[in-house]
Design a protein that fits this description.
With about 450 residues, the protein is mostly helical. It has one domain. The chain has 18 helices and no strands. Helix 8 runs parallel beside helix 10. It is globular, with a radius of gyration of 23 Å. The protein starts with a helix and ends with a helix.
Length: about 450
């Protein structure tokens, strides 16, 4: 009953948000502008509407493909340019289309509020120039979210699944390259292990140049790839996505990323609990048997993976060495400095962006412990945009979890489970690492949020 009342409240909030945004001054102004431009361009562009849509889908595929390409592993500017180009195509498609489905919900409202806090933080920042660069990244990612959300809402389920399938294809290619690196024993690009606490292993990084980044990237795709194996009725496609899931899982383990392992462990345990609960709920089996099956499944999975890959146990155990491990000691010192930064910039932060963080962090860092970011996504946002911005970002996660819970348990949508597990993996990994805001992870994150809106629309129609 409580769950139903929460969902009912969210539905009411979504409806209110849609009407509020559309009837606001900015919303009305945008609608008028779009209608006026459409009147001028429709006679010219309407006959090219289907071709524009194909170009738009191609550009989206280009963005997804670029995430696994080595030339874009550190070139965030290049990825941003591709997103801007795609958004321009999207505008042409928007102006040439009639009766396009455009709606807003509570999550969109939170995202707009989050951007508003980012703007306030930027214009209040001592490092104004650097903050504007950071703000521009957030705006570009928001444009990506807006574009993919409306595109998903106006495309078929087949196109929706094919876009995710396309992403999975490039992910499995990336994973295969990583597995090959392990076979040949590729040389590390940096010193990622503490030789005083653990055995030095080959840590693969594929085309992304960083094993932690690769782990985060694969954590997003793995649950979706597994769900696609269930969604597709074609046996060949089922075999392909099952094989792809296995390769991605193996490569994820070979990254040696402790944050990736924690994300994999938490998401795996959650997956087993949810699936067993769902199955037992359907069969009306008693709770005691439910609990025993869940515990057995979790223990079996952990034992199986640790038996095949002893590196998992070794790497995870180093977490409990606390400051004796150089990586743990480094993170603790970074967190201490970041909490001091947050204390001095509690409500509006220092300003968004990596460059802003680097400049401000130099005033607080423990000597010898320089850092690119806070090694925790919520602490990072709190430091950059303020405590209120971090609260809104947490709220975005909570809203998505509530919606996915409803879509899976009440609407029986299996794809929503894949999105939920992906978000849990990202969230867990992001609590101890810096890679969340890299395009290879941040772009799929917004893709996951846009997919929730797509599934909601299908369930309501």
């Amino acid at each position: 009953m409580k769950s139903q009342s929460v969902i009912k409240g969210l539905t009411t909030l979504d409806s209110w948000t849609d009407q509020t945004i559309k009837h606001s001054f900015i919303g009305k102004s945008l609608i008028i502008v779009i209608e006026r431009i459409s009147q001028l361009t429709t006679p010219l562009c309407s006959r090219f509407n289907s071709k524009l849509f194909i170009l738009l889908l191609t550009s989206i595929c280009g963005i997804l493909a670029s995430l696994s390409m080595p030339q874009f592993a550190s070139d965030r500017f290049g990825v941003g340019l591709i997103i801007i180009f795609s958004f321009l195509l999207f505008l042409f498609y928007l102006f040439s289309s009639k009766n396009l489905k455009i709606s807003f919900n509570s999550m969109d409202f939170c995202i707009v509020i989050f951007l508003a806090f980012a703007v306030i933080s930027s214009f209040s920042s001592y490092f104004f120039k650097e903050s504007l660069v950071g703000l521009s990244k957030y705006i570009i990612f928001f444009l990506w979210y807006l574009m993919i959300k409306i595109t998903f809402a106006n495309c078929s389920k087949k196109i929706f699944l094919n876009l995710w399938g396309f992403f999975c294809i490039f992910a499995v290619i990336t994973a295969s390259i990583g597995i090959y690196q392990n076979i040949i024993g590729v040389e590390p690009l940096a010193t990622w292990e503490d030789p005083t606490q653990e055995t030095i292993h080959t840590r693969v990084y594929s085309t992304l140049g960083n094993p932690n980044l690769l782990a985060g990237y694969l954590l997003v795709v793995l649950p979706i790839c597994t769900i696609l194996a269930i969604e597709h009725k074609n046996n060949l496609l089922k075999i392909f996505f099952i094989t792809a899931s296995i390769l991605i899982l193996v490569c994820l383990i070979l990254t040696g990323s402790r944050g990736g392992y924690i994300g994999l462990l938490v998401s795996s345990i959650l997956s087993i609990i949810v699936c067993l609960n769902y199955f037992i709920f359907q069969k009306n089996i008693n709770k005691t048997k439910n609990l025993l099956l869940a515990i057995s499944g979790i223990i079996g999975l952990i034992l199986f993976l640790t038996f095949l890959f002893p590196v998992i146990t070794e790497r995870l155990l180093t977490i409990f060495t606390l400051r004796e491990h150089s990586s743990n000691n480094y993170r603790v010192n970074v967190w201490i400095a970041c909490f001091q930064m947050l204390k001095d910039n509690l409500f509006i932060g220092i300003g968004p962006g990596n460059s802003t963080f680097r400049l401000a962090y130099g005033l607080y860092m423990v000597t010898g412990f320089d850092a690119l970011a806070a090694y925790n996504i919520f602490l990072e946002i709190a430091v950059e945009i303020g405590l209120l911005g971090s609260f809104i970002f947490i709220l975005i996660f909570l809203l998505s979890f509530f919606k996915l819970h409803h879509l899976f348990w009440q609407k029986k949508n299996i794809f929503s489970l894949g999105i939920f597990i992906s978000l849990v993996g990202l969230l867990t990994h992001g609590m101890v690492d810096t890679v969340f805001f890299r395009p290879q992870i941040f772009i799929p994150f917004w893709l996951l949020l846009a997919s929730i809106d797509k599934i909601e629309g299908e369930m309501q129609s």
